[in-house]
Structure formats: structure tokens, C-alpha cells
Amino acid sequence: MIRPLTAKRLASVSGLLAALLVLVILVSLKLGAVPVSMVDLATNLGRIVIGQADHLPSEQSLIIREIRLPRILLGVIVGAALSVAGAGFQALLRNPLADPYVLGVSSGAALGAIISLVAAPRVPVAMPIAAFAGALATITAVYFLGRRGGELDSHTLLLAGIISASFLSAVIMFLMTTLSGGELRGIAFWLMGDLTSTRTPLDAGWLFLLLVLAVGAIYTTAADLNLLLTGEQEAMHLGVDVSRVKLVVYVSASLLTGLAVSISGAIGYVGLIVPHVMRLLFGSDHRMLIPASALGGAIAIVIADTLARTLVAPTELPVGAMTAMAGAPMFIYLLRRRFG
Amino acid sequence: MSTPPGASAVTSGAASAVKLASGPRLLVEQASYAYAADADEAPLFTLEATSLRANRGELAAILGPNASGKSTLLKLISGVLKPLSGRVQLDGVEVSTLDPRTRAQRIALVQQESQLLFPIRVWEYVLQGRHPYGRPMRFETESDFEIAQEALEQVKALHLRERWLHQVSGGEKQRVILARALAQQPLLLLLDEPTLHLDIGAQVDLLRELRRLASDRGYTIVVVTHELNLAAQFSDHVMLMHRGKCLRVGAAPDVYQRELLEQVFGAALDVESGAGGRPRVIART
């Protein structure tokens, strides 16, 4: 049956995913080391909605408002950013295995962030900028290392990404030795992908704005990305301004990776798994895939982080460990199903 | 089989109609190109000054052994490469100066292999041909669907539209790729060795189809091919290339000279006169 992508279908799928995201957020707010009753949850959310402050905040409302909700919202930003970056890299590099983590872009962003922490610890704004610069420099290097005879080679590209990631990690380890013990533990945890960090570089509102701008920029190239999947030459013959699209997507995807890494460190596999699942569910048209990946990535991270803080409560796992544990086997399953 | 000048004005705006009356639809005049590994070094491959012209409704075939410059010439005609000297014009406009969108509305290229990263349905693939007419953030319109449907009908592949592209046969896939090019509603249709992976039946079908599209629909078609006999049978102009040089261009009987073909292809050949005076090449035993 011909099911063309229409604005209506896009809206209904996005609406469905958005509703699912809200549901997941509510469940995540309720779950945790300290139990929160439905009444408390409803009261607190009601107060937030009408903008009324608590006169005498209870322990539970503090947990909901000051601990769980900000962390969930950061998770939403990180998940959306990484998934859209992954979808963008996959289309541009014509490689279904590309994602910010596998390509070493996350490590590049992490190195940038750590350099800013070492060099300018008192300038919080420097961190996301440095992370963005690190991401952009890494994808540029990996792109050129991944070429053979003037053509992008998918295996060489992945190897270039993995080697770059391990090299960058070594540099990160070296820089970390200059930090003191307390900082070191925080950064080691952050590197594994962690949402508990209290040193959010920017106000959540600004982070959200950057997310929307970068995702929006990639969305303007969505129809072009569909054609880039068939190769740059073919896309060009179908009227795609290939160099413009590449510039927009590389810069925006690097910005998204830098954004995510400066919030939560290097969380792996989200950018790989989420676009794949969305493709299987809703098809590979990027006009659908990009918004679906943004929402799906947010859902995935909120679920992963909820599990990370409840599975072994009151101890917490880094969310990056959760995504890797769930993501790696799932990826292999998807790969086998596709080619089996 | 030449169309009277000015006939093509039907499809174009009044401004270009003036130019059309005085020139062919496709004009390649003394166009040359050179590939170099380094700007300072001697070029690795040179395409010497080459000329070709084709009117509305005409089919031209570019022939030659491997590395004779056929594909380079096709790239010049498609506007991907800019000639070092000479002119490559479509309706009087230099093709390399067109922006990608406009170029894709006027020139469609069918390449040897269309690679797929993720599975795609036949109708989705054909609809990609409407991309040069779309705008960012916009979905295909009803008329885009109609045009894609008509393109599939033209190549007799409408029954394939629900199928996955990677699951159709080689001949069917070639038709679908052609349908995507037709959905671009181009003036000029370029095909790079379209018969490469086809059996002889599918090859004849394809060439007959192209001949019909040129004659009935007014497309100007340029085909790069190895198939000497099919080219002789179906084309209006034949260009014979060898080592970056155009040796001869003209009607098939003028180009298909035994000594010339033997020299170019390095084999003992005979040229017979077939039906309608069209030459036929056979290997001498």
C-alpha cells in the first residue's frame, strides 16, 4: 500500500511519541530511591504548571523539583541531541553504523570539555563551546582519515573513528592526571556518561534553545538527506546542493554532540540504536526520521537513566553504562535481523 | 529523423524559443577536459576537443572502448564538470553554470548502479525524481504522485510500484531507475552504460523504449554504451571515441567503417549493411 509521508502522518507519529515521552517522564518522576506518592506527584506538577511556589517545601517536593525533574529534562536534551546527531552522521557518511560515540566525536567533545575545565575552570560557558570545537575537529579528522582513493570507505571510516576515540581517550587520561582527587572522580564518572553532574554549563533554557536550533537546521535538509543515501553523485544530479547540506549537517550534528557531551559526558549507542528503531517503525524518510529520533532519543535516555538510578538503588550507575548494556546486544539483534 | 528547428519551442518559454530556433537543444562544441593528480603535473587523462549536437527527439550514442573518455564527456554534458575549453550548452545555456536544482529540472542522468543504504519501495524511489521541484520542509503533492505514476507507466513498470527496489530483477530495476529520471521531466536524458547488467532481451527492450521516448515524447537522449549493434540500430547520431579523442561523429553508416572500428577495438571485425541501411558489426572468424 502506498503510504506517502504527509504532514498529517508526521504530526500523528510525533504526537504519539510526545505523549509517550510525557508518560515516561511521569513514571520516572515517581520512581526512585525515595518513594513518591501519586498525590505528591500530582500536587507538585500542578504547582509547577500554575507557577506557584511551595511555602514550606516537603522533602518529596524537593526531590521532585530540585533533583528528579531537572535531571530528566537534561536527559531529554541529551537523548534528542545524540539521536539526531546519529541520524545525521548516518545519512551523511552513508554508514548505518555511524554514531557520535563510534565515530569518536563524543571523545573529541569530551576532550574539548576537559581542556576547558583544566584551562578555564571558572568560565562555565567555555565548556560547551570547547566541546563543540572538539566534536567538529574530530569529525573533520575522521572524515578525511576514512577516505580511500578519494572515496569514503565505510570500514576505514569506522576504524578511523574507533582509533581516534582511543587516541583521544589517552589524551583525556593524560590531562586528568593534572586534576585533584575529588574532581578526578567526578570527571571519571562523567566520562562514562552521567546525568548526575551538578555543573551544568548553561541554563537549561539555553541548552534547549540550542537543541531546537541545531535539530531545526538539520531538519531543513531532511529531503536532501533522503537522496544523499543513494550517493553524493546521484544526489547532485537530483538537484541537491551537496556541499551546503554537508556543511549544515556536520556543523549541527557536531553542535548537538558537543551539547550532549558537555551535559552528560560520552553516552554511547543512543545515536546508533534510536534512529535504527525509528527507521524500522516509521520508515527511512528523514522528514519523519529526524523528529521521531529526537523524541525517541529523549524517551530512551529517560528510561535508561531511570533504570540507572533504580536498579541498584540507593547506589547509581552511570547512564552510559545502561545504554551500552542495552544498546550493544540490541544493535547486534537489529543487524542480524536486517541482513538475516 | 531530424526535427525541424523551432519544434522544441512548444515545451519551453518564449525567451528560450528565440535561441532554440537558431541552435540545437544540446550543443557540445570543442569541449575539452583534463584530469590531473596535481595542478602542476601532466594530466592523467585528457579529453580532447569534442563536438556533438542533438535536437529535440533525437537519440545519440557515445561509443568506445574502456578509458576512451566516454564517461568524461557524459560528465561534461551533465554539468558536473566544467569544460576547460569550448562550450556545453542546453537550449543555449551553459550547463555548468546552472544551479543544481535548475540543472536537475532539465537534465536527468541514469547511472550504472544505484546504491541503497536502507530498503526503499519502488514508488518512493521514483518520487525522488520530483526532488528538484520541491522545497525544504514540504511534502510531495498530488501532482508529484501523478507524475511519478506516469513515469512508471511510460516504462511499463507500474505493477512494480509496491515492491522493494532491491528485490526486483536487473531489467526491472533499470526501468525503475529510468522512471525516476523521467519523473524529473528533463529536456535531456543521459544514460551511462544502461545495458551493462542486462541480458540481450532486456537490452533490446530498453533501447526500443528509449527510441520511443525520444520520438514520441521529445526527449533528447544521450547513451554511453558498448553495444555497437544496438547503437547502430536505434540512434540518430553516433560518436566514436578512442583514448580521449573523438574519432568520428555522424550517422551510423558513416562512423561504422571497418578499418576504423578494427583500429579502435583492436579486433578483426566485419561491417555488414543490415535492415534500413543500418550497419551491423560482427567478429571475423
Uncertain runs of chain A: none
How many structural domains can be distinguished in the coordinates of chain A?
Answer: 1
Q: What does the overall shape of chain B look like?
A: globular
Taking the alpha carbons of the first and last residues of chain B, their distance comes to: 35 Å
- The helix/strand class of chain B is alpha/beta
Output the strand order for the largest sheet of chain A: 1-2
Helices of chain B, by number, come to 10
Helix content of chain B: 25-40%
Strand content of chain A: under 5%
What class, by secondary structure content of chain A?
Answer: mainly alpha
In one word, what is the shape of chain A?
Answer: globular
- The beta-strand count of chain B equals 12
Written as H for each helix and E for each strand, in order along the chain, the element string of chain A is: HHHHHEEHHHHHHHHH
Q: Number of helical segments of chain A?
A: 14
Question: How is this structure best summarized?
Answer:
The complex is a heterodimer of chains A (340) and B (285). In chain A, 74% of the residues lie in helices and 1% in strands. Chain A is mainly alpha-helical.
